[in-house]
UniProtKB/TrEMBL annotation:
UniProt cross-references to InterPro entries, sorted A to Z: CheY-like_superfamily (IPR011006), Diguanylate_Cyclase (IPR050469), GGDEF_dom (IPR000160), Nucleotide_cyclase (IPR029787), Rev_trsase/Diguanyl_cyclase (IPR043128), Sig_transdc_resp-reg_receiver (IPR001789)
Stated name of the protein: diguanylate cyclase
UniProt modified residues of type 4-aspartylphosphate: D61
SUPFAM superfamilies: CheY-like, Nucleotide cyclase
Domain GGDEF: 177-310
GO cellular component, one term: plasma membrane
Keywords noted in UniProt: Phosphoprotein
Domain spans labelled Response regulatory: 10-126
Native organism: Rhodopirellula sallentina SM41
The UniProt record lists the keyword Transit peptide: no
GO terms of molecular function: diguanylate cyclase activity
Catalytic reactions on record: 2 GTP = 3',3'-c-di-GMP + 2 diphosphate
Family annotation (Gene3D superfamilies): 3.30.70.270, 3.40.50.2300
């Protein structure tokens, strides 16, 4: 939709009656403003034309050789949802007009009862209404996305995570496929905030979220679970696969010092892993199991991965000591 005061408004007229095409062309020439008219005599020809060329608005007859009634609106909308459509017919039927609007047409013109002035106004208003509708739809989608995302880190928020988890849980139960949950907590994060301020703390969380995201597989999901905790949903992953994934991320994080003006901060995290099994009967049970494993990892020294089972909590994978100790942060001067 590129028609402006400096460029012609491009119209596609879908009409197989040569007399009506001539009348429409004459009426358009009487309208003030600049218009570029293109004509197709069937809907199929129009759809092919639209694949190759751009236009600002489509005006279509309701009765065409390859379609009748309002079917054309649906077919155009399906493939070109951004285009405004004005339907034309010789039938003076208000119900049909309302049906056309309900299907997505911007307006409805009665052949033989339209003046050049009305035609110009209809074209202009139809284009403007469609622009407003498209912008409103874009804003709605933007708001929907914002409602699902954590504003600081750009990953899913807790509410959206639970919704994703329910979806993956249902699929795993139906297909009898594995599903795992990993919860991680940035070690001694409070000391980062206390020592360097919340601005640096926020940047650390953003860095952690970005690093985890680079390790995600297709279909997996990551969310900020709360504070400095993140939750990862691993689809088609049993406990062994999830523990290996978690330990790989743990190592990457420990090997990626965070640069600050004073030097570098070595950031580590503790990981709890749980998988869908007979003892985890709901999403809540699975998240709770991963959370219990996380507590075990922190209790056993941090910077490690712990698995959960119904009988015991055990450590799995290579583990190291937390690079942020209880007494002071490890600060390395910038070289």
């Amino acid at each position: 939709m590129r028609g402006t005061s400096s460029s012609p408004t491009k119209l596609l007229l879908i009409e197989n009656d040569e007399t009506d095409v001539l009348l429409f062309s004459r009426m358009l020439s009487e309208c003030s403003g600049s218009f570029q008219l293109n004509v197709c005599d069937t809907l199929d020809a129009a759809l092919r034309w639209l694949e190759e060329f751009e236009c600002d608005i489509v005006l279509s007859d309701m009765s065409l050789p390859d379609t009748f009634g309002l079917e054309g609106i649906t077919k155009i909308q399906e493939r070109f949802p951004h285009l405004p459509i004005v339907m034309m017919t010789g039938l003076d039927d208000d119900e049909v007009a309302l049906d056309a609007l309900d299907l997505g047409a911007q307006d409805y013109l009665l052949k033989g009862d339209t003046t050049p002035r009305e035609l110009k106004r209809t074209i202009r208003y139809a284009i403007q209404r469609k622009l407003i509708q498209c912008e409103n739809a874009r804003l709605v989608e933007k708001l929907k996305l914002a409602a699902r995302m954590d504003a600081l880190t750009g990953v899913l928020n807790r509410h959206a995570m639970l919704s994703e988890f329910e979806k993956h849980w249902a699929q795993a139960c139906e297909n009898q496929t594995p599903l795992s949950c990993v919860i991680l907590d940035v070690d001694f994060f409070k000391r980062v905030n206390d020592e360097f301020g919340h601005v640096i703390g926020d940047k650390v969380l953003q860095r952690v979220a970005k690093l985890i995201s680079t390790q995600m597989r297709c279909g997996d999901s990551i969310a900020r679970y709360g504070g400095e905790e993140f939750c990862v949903i691993l689809v088609d992953a049993d406990e062994d696969v999830a523990a290996q994934w978690a330990d790989r991320v743990r190592q990457r994080l420990a090997e990626s010092p965070f640069q600050i003006p004073e030097g570098t901060i070595q950031i580590t995290a503790s990981f709890g892993v749980a998988h869908r099994c007979g003892e985890t009967k709901t999403v809540e049970h699975l998240i709770d199991a991963a959370d219990h494993a996380l507590l075990e990892a922190k209790h056993d020294g941090r910077n490690r991965v712990a698995r959960y089972s119904a009988n015991a909590k055990r450590i799995a994978g290579d583990s190291g000591n937390s690079l942020l100790d209880l007494n002071a942060l490890s600060i390395c001067p910038v070289i």
